[in-house]
């Protein structure tokens, strides 16, 4: 339109940040955490050990791991007044809405870990967040079903403790299946970090202004919530439920290819991977194993596998290099573990907290400047004010 700027299409931005935490080769489907392939970590490590790796850069010795776990256990409870904070929410509030609010509220409680110029403060903030996220997540679920909050039981390992707080109740002893706890731990591990994704970039941008670390993580939770990002696992299960039967798959494939239809194949495609997301392969194998070990025959898994087969043979998906991502199978496992759909993205947030914190600490510990993305202005050129009688 008249007066709009035109701009040089040759304008390029090389804005990128340096990091030593995670490497992704999107063309070849490679994901390394501090140099270790995600497939090997998923097979041989556990979530807290991977947290240590992401935070400190090396796998821990047995003594280091014992001390790390002990320190995390010191922070699994939340301030008792946080419990009253929940009373401000509607019972039917989405747990991700509650997570945004409650994690942000931690910045009003823990002043002794917010002097970000002090590495000890940053370390305590990191331990507090890793330790308290499962507690807050379980509280958001208990609140939504009107059951009493469960205190953490530090005699249990990280993931079993989370399941204890999710599904335990004060009237009976917890009976956490080792199969389910191990699968839960693998889910947290596979979500731990993923380089400069939208939510991690949000945390880094918020952190670059030297904002309170708990508030920065709350910003990451908000960014993760969207169905294009962490909300996709919940959207995948809703999509598979809507498809309902393998006979309906072709209709949904056609819709996903239709430019005029906003429907996207949830759990497919990625900003970086133009090959299989290596986490999706591990997740698919875990889905088979968990359902078999639990004796569950979920037709949704059959629909997902058939959908994957059809899509990977379809020229649209092949040409656009659209492959299953981390979210495609995770929802099926979470459903088998008894996790309600509304908690799927919360689980993603619990797992990703260590990645957010590792990137935040890496930036804050080094030399950094406040983030300030630039723009390509395409609005009006300068013009004089027009009084209302002349408009
Ligand atoms: C996560 O960044 C990260 O690392 C994120 C994450 C992490 O660990 O933090 O890996 C987690 O967020 C995984 C992504 C979860 N989201 C979904 O599964 C939602 C469904 N996926 C799409 O919304 C999409 O693939 C995105 C959002 C993931 C990526 O979108 P882009 O950047 O537009 O993808 P693209 O550039 O590769 O798209 C190429 C083409 C486009 O069409 P054209 O403009 O070329 O005609 O493929 C189309 C897209 O419209 N396309 C799809 C599609 N994904 C992309 N068409 C149908 N179904 C899809 N799922």
UniProtKB/TrEMBL annotation:
<feature type="active site">
    <location>
        <position position="270"/>
    </location>
</feature>
<dbReference type="InterPro" id="IPR016143">
    <property type="entry name" value="Citrate_synth-like_sm_a-sub"/>
</dbReference>
<feature type="active site">
    <location>
        <position position="327"/>
    </location>
</feature>
<protein>
    <recommendedName>
        <fullName>Citrate synthase</fullName>
    </recommendedName>
</protein>
<dbReference type="InterPro" id="IPR024176">
    <property type="entry name" value="Citrate_synthase_bac-typ"/>
</dbReference>
<keyword id="KW-0816">Tricarboxylic acid cycle</keyword>
<comment type="similarity">
    <text>Belongs to the citrate synthase family.</text>
</comment>
<dbReference type="InterPro" id="IPR016142">
    <property type="entry name" value="Citrate_synth-like_lrg_a-sub"/>
</dbReference>
<dbReference type="GO" id="GO:0006099">
    <property type="term" value="P:tricarboxylic acid cycle"/>
</dbReference>
<keyword id="KW-0808">Transferase</keyword>
<dbReference type="GO" id="GO:0005737">
    <property type="term" value="C:cytoplasm"/>
</dbReference>
<dbReference type="InterPro" id="IPR036969">
    <property type="entry name" value="Citrate_synthase_sf"/>
</dbReference>
<keyword id="KW-0012">Acyltransferase</keyword>
<dbReference type="Pfam" id="PF00285">
    <property type="entry name" value="Citrate_synt"/>
</dbReference>
<comment type="pathway">
    <text>Carbohydrate metabolism; tricarboxylic acid cycle; isocitrate from oxaloacetate: step 1/2.</text>
</comment>
<dbReference type="InterPro" id="IPR019810">
    <property type="entry name" value="Citrate_synthase_AS"/>
</dbReference>
<dbReference type="InterPro" id="IPR010953">
    <property type="entry name" value="Citrate_synthase_typ-I"/>
</dbReference>
<dbReference type="InterPro" id="IPR002020">
    <property type="entry name" value="Citrate_synthase"/>
</dbReference>
<dbReference type="GO" id="GO:0036440">
    <property type="term" value="F:citrate synthase activity"/>
</dbReference>
């Amino acid at each position: 339109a008249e007066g709009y700027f035109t701009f040089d299409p040759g304008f390029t931005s090389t804005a990128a940040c340096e990091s030593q935490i995670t490497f992704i080769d999107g063309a070849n489907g490679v994901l390394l955490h501090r140099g270790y392939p995600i497939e090997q970590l998923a097979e041989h490590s556990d979530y807290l050990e991977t947290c240590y790796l992401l935070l400190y850069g090396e796998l821990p010795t047995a003594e280091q791991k014992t001390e790390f776990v002990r320190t995390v256990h010191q922070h699994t409870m939340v301030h008792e007044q946080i419990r009253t904070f929940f009373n401000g929410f509607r019972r039917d509030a989405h747990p991700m809405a509650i997570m945004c609010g409650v994690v942000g509220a931690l910045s009003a409680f823990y002043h002794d870990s917010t002097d970000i110029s002090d590495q000890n403060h940053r370390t305590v903030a990191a331990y507090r967040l890793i330790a308290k996220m499962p507690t807050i997540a379980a509280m958001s679920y208990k609140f939504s079903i009107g059951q009493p909050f469960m205190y953490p039981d530090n005699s249990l390992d990280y993931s079993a403790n989370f399941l204890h707080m999710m599904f335990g109740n004060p009237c009976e002893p917890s009976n956490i299946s080792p199969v389910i706890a191990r699968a839960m731990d693998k889910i947290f591990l596979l979500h731990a970090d993923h380089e400069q994704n939208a939510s991690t970039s949000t945390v880094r941008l918020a952190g670059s202004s030297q904002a309170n670390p708990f508030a920065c993580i709350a910003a990451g939770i908000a960014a993760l919530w969207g169905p294009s990002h962490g909300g996709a696992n919940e959207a995948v299960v809703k999509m598979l439920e809507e498809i309902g039967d393998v006979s309906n798959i072709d209709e949904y494939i056609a819709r996903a290819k239709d430019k005029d239809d906003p429907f996207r194949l949830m759990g497919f495609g990625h900003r970086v991977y133009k090959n299989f997301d290596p986490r999706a392969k591990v997740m698919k194998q875990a889905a088979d194993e968990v359902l078999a070990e639990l004796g569950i025959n979920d037709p949704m898994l059959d629909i997902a596998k058939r959908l994957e087969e059809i899509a990977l043979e379809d020229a649209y998906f092949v040409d656009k290099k659209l492959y299953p991502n981390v979210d495609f199978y995770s929802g099926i496992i979470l459903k088998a573990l008894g996790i309600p759909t509304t908690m799927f993205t919360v689980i993603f947030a619990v797992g990703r907290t260590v990645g957010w914190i590792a990137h935040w600490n890496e930036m804050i510990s080094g030399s950094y400047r406040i983030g300030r993305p630039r723009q390509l202005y395409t609005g009006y050129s300068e013009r004089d004010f027009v009084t209302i009688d002349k408009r």
